[in-house]
Amino acid sequence: MHQTITECCRCLRPGGQMLLYVWAFEQPNGRFPSQDLLVPWNLSEIPLNGRLPQVKFHKNSTKEERVIQASVPVTVPDDEKASNSSGWLGSLMNK
């Protein structure tokens, strides 16, 4: 994930913005078999060859998220509302 974010930041122009969604592994009622999951990708919900395509997601721990944020050249605003959410977290990142 660190390499992905670093590359996205490299491609941003100065003053550019990136919207990044992460899904917390430590959810109160979450039980996941592992941190790597295949999630159905429903583009207009049209199956390809009889099934929906899947996208691999890696569920970050909050420690991993802090390490990544500290090592990429962007500003990540503290979004208290999103931080308290037990579901998806969206952060607007500025270069």
Automatic annotation (TrEMBL):
Protein name, entry field: Methyltransferase type 11 domain-containing protein
InterPro entries documented for this protein: SAM-dependent_MTases_sf (IPR029063)
